[in-house]
Amino acid sequence: MTSILIAVGIVAGIGLLIGLILSVASIIMAVPKDEKAEKILEALPGANCGACGYSGCSGYAAALAKGKAEPGLCAPGGSSCTKAVSEILGVETGAVEPKVAVVKCRGSLEHTSYRAEYSGIMSCAAAMKIGGGLTACTYGCMGLGDCEAVCPYDAIHVSNGVACVDGGKCRACTLCVKTCPRGIIEIVPKKEMALNRCSNRDKGGVTRKLCDVGCIGCKKCEKACEAGAVTVKDFCAKVDPSLCTNCGKCVEACPQQCITYFK
Asked: 209: domain range?
C-alpha cells in the first residue's frame, strides 16, 4: 500500500512541476498583443475573404496597425468600415469606390444549350473534370451553383441555367470569383457604364453556332466608342470602366446584344 501511495505522489509531483514549468513558459514566451490591431480587427466585418489582398481580416488588421496598408481595401465592410478604421488609426477617411460582382455570361437556356447530359455531382468544378464541362460554350456559365453556395450574403443565384448577382446584396468579397472554375465572374465598379456580359474567346463563326448572345469580336463596339473605352482582344470586347462615359453607342452598335448598360 505504501509503495502505491509513493508512486501516486511521485506522479502527482511530476504533474505539478510540469504544470508550473508550462505556466512560467507561457508568461515568458507570450507574444504581446497589438491593441491597435485588435481594435481594427473588431471594426472589420470578419468575412476573411481576402479581397483586401491580405490573409483574411487578421492579416489586414495587422498590416494596418503597422502602417503597411491603407484603409479602404475592405470591400465587404464598405465606407462605414473604412471610417471606423481611419478613426482608430487617426487618419483621414479615404474614398471607397463601391464595387460589385458580375457574371460575364448571359447564356441562359433560351440562348445556348448543353452539349451533353450530366448526371454527376451538382458542382461546376466537378463538371469541368468531365470533358471540360457540359455547356455548348466552353467559356459560359454551367449553372450548377458553386458561386451560389459560397456566397455568404445570399447575393448570387442560378436562374434558367445561368448565375445572376443581386447588386443590392453583393459586398464584392470575391469568394464567388475565386470559386468559379471558368473565371467568368469579375468585380467591377458599381457605376453607370457599359459592360460586355460575355467571356467567349472563340471566333465569331463558332460563337454564333453556340450562343445567340455571345460576343463575336466584330469590333463594331470598339469603332463606335469615341472615348476609347472599348477594346477587342481574342475575339472578346472589354470595356474600361475608367474611360466609359455611358454614352450607349457601343450598346447600340453590338449586333449580339452582349454589351449592356450596367449600374
From this structure: 191-263
Backbone angles phi, psi at 67, to 5 degrees: 75, 20
Q: Which helix (H) or strand (E) holds 232?
A: strand 230-233
Q: What is the pLDDT of residues 80-120, one digit of tens each?
A: 898 999 999 988 876 678 899 999 999 998 999 888 888 88
In the chain, the number of structural domains is 3
Q: Residue 19 falls within a domain, yes or no?
A: no
Residue 2 lies in a domain: no
Q: What angle do CA 77, 176, 38 make, to 5 degrees?
A: 30
Cα 17 to Cα 20, 28, 29, 154: the distances in Å are 5, 17, 18, 53
> Model's pTM, two decimal places?
0.78
CATH number, position 244: 3.30.70.20
